[in-house]
Structure formats: C-alpha cells, structure tokens
Amino acid sequence: MERTLRTAVRKDPAARKVIAAWRRLTGGAETRDKDRRTLIACSGGADSSALAIILAAATDNLTVCHILHNLRPEKAAKADRDTARRLTRKLGLPFTSRSAAVLELPGNAEANAREIRYELLARVARAKGCVAIATAHHADDQAETVLMRLIRGSGPSGLRGVRESRPGPLRLRIVRPMLGVSREDAERICRIAGHRWATDATNTDTTRLRAAVRARVLPVLRELSPNVSLALTRAAGVQADAAQLIRQRANTLMAAARQRESGLELPGKLLSRQPAAVLVQMIRMLYHRVVGTEGARSLTGMTLAPVLCAVRARSPRRVVITVGRCRIEATPTRLALKPLTPA
C-alpha cells in the first residue's frame, strides 16, 4: 500500500478501531504483527474490501482470498472476483481464489456454501502460513442477525449473534474485527482508497429474510435510534455472557447423566426447578453426546416445550417425542434420550 493511502486510512477512527480489534483477536499485545499472519476473506463488496484496505494499512503480512460459488450467474460471480483481485493488486497483497460447486449438493444451498467457504478458506490459510481467517461481518450485519433470530424466537445462544472470534477448520481462528463499525464506515474507507466495490444483487432480494430486515426493518429503527446497530451489537455481547452462564449451569447438570440402554438418563428431581433456557441447553448437550450434531437444529424451545412441562412437573403424564435422530422421554421423575439408530 502506498504511504499516503496508508496514512489516510490510519487516520480514520473506524479503521483504528478495526486494527485494534484485529490485534486483540489475533494474540494481543504480546504478539508481533509479523506473527499474526491473516487470511482475509474478500468477496469484492464494500465490507470485505474495507477490511482488506484497513488491515493493509497496518501490515503487509496478509493474504486475500476470494471464494467463487456457483450460486449466481457466472459472469456476475467472476466480475466480483476480478474486483477483489484489482483491489488486492492495488494494496500490494497476494491474492488467491478458489471455486466451490454448491448447487449439486443436497440440502440448503446457502448453508452448504457457508460450510464449504470456510473449509476452502482454512485450506488456503494453512497453506499460506496464516494463524487466523478474518471476515468482514460488521455492526449492521450483527444487528440484522439479532433481529432475525429475535423474529424466530431464539434464546440467549441465538441472540448473541455472530461471535467476534470462534474456532474454525484446521484449528484456525475465525475473527471478525469489524463488529464495532458500520456498513457506512466500510463504504467511507473504500472511498478514501478510491475503490469501487462490487454489489451483489442478492443482497437486495427482499424475499430473503436478511434482505427484508435490512431494507424494511432497520431503516425504521434508525429513525427511532440512529445508533441502533451498535446498540444491538452491545446487546448481543450481553446475550453472549448470558449464554455462557446458561451453558455452565447446563454442564453442571450434565454431570448427573447416566448411561442407560445405549442412551442417557437424568433424575427429574434435579430438573424440576431449572429455568427453561438451562433445560433446553442441557438437552442439546445430551443430544450431541448421544447422537452427534445431525438433526440438532430441531432442538428449539418450541419443539421441546412438552418435555420441559413434563420434567418440571407441570404435566403428570409421560411425554415422548422424536427430534432429529433421537427419542426423548420425559416424566416428572426422569428424562431419557435414546438414539433412533446406533450412533
């Protein structure tokens, strides 16, 4: 990156905030920048372009990677890749791209694309000697995620939104240093660099919940509170703390689980006075232990409501439900989970 551009970017308050977050998430003050080599996932859009520009103002020890999916018309997808490549060349950073065939796979195409994208990013990061993968999720993304999950009735685990840092494939960290800044900040950084970012038409397709929240809900909330995205991001942090406490309490209950008939069982007397959020978290953990992760998304508070009523002695009858690959049986004196097929 040219010195004048580096200086201009580093003067921006949002850029300074992102650089500080990136350093904190990749080892803190004890780690030198040359030891925190990072792979930047860059779609070519304003958000990921701004992330590349900001981190390039801090260090040259970066690699930029673009994942080319087949979810969109080939011409548009390649145009975005070329936009990311041009920016990377301007910044003087190495660039690589990988292709992912998603449409041919069974299941949800977007979920498959997300999983494959992180797997490919991790492989490139490992090959390039990176210790982390940085993505450009920002405060507006976080606000959208929290609102979407609120609409769906999520508890603290869902309302914590996108995590600032989490384990990724191949023992790499996935970090989101832009959660403290907005989409407007990202676009300003791109303009400082004189970069014309790519625009994905699917982002304006309001038949998708996220796009509808972005176009119809957040503008109304901003009229009431201009800083609503940052406020919702702070709220997500509080929910993350609550989710951690719930998980700790659920872990304590898990210690009482006993192996029975290839499944797990707990005495009802330990559960009758537990909050619903703790019980739901504990059942999810039991499910993972009994059958793994397949089908675990079905374990929602609504699905498990009859089970919670039974173990909390609000229903004297025996309740049996099948969720995912597991059979759950509940009474006021007993909770048992058994796999439908050998795990």
Short note summarizing the structure:
The protein has 343 residues and is of the alpha/beta class. It has helices spanning 3-11, 13-25, 46-56, 74-91, 109-127, 139-151, 156-159, 183-192, 209-224, 228-254, 276-291, 305-311, and strands at 38-41, 62-69, 95-100, 132-134, 165-167, 173-175, 258-260, 263-267, 319-323, 326-331, 334-339. The strands form two sheets. A six-stranded mixed beta sheet has the order 3-2-1-4-6-5, with helices on both faces.
What can you tell me about this protein's structure?
This protein has 343 residues and is α/β, with parallel strands linked by helices. It folds into two domains: 3-234, 3-Layer(aba) Sandwich (Rossmann fold); 256-339, 2-Layer Sandwich (Uridine Diphospho-n-acetylenolpyruvylglucosamine Reductase, domain 3). Helix content is 48%, strand content 15%. The chain contains twelve helices and eleven strands. The protein has helices at residues 3-11, 13-25, 46-56, 74-91, 109-127, 139-151, 156-159, 183-192, 209-224, 228-254, 276-291, 305-311, and strands at 38-41, 62-69, 95-100, 132-134, 165-167, 173-175, 258-260, 263-267, 319-323, 326-331, 334-339. It has a six-stranded mixed sheet, sandwiched between helices. Strands 7-8-11-10-9 form a five-stranded antiparallel sheet. Strand 9 and strand 10 form a beta hairpin. The chain is elongated and about 70 Å long. The N and C termini lie far apart (53 Å). The mean pLDDT is 91.
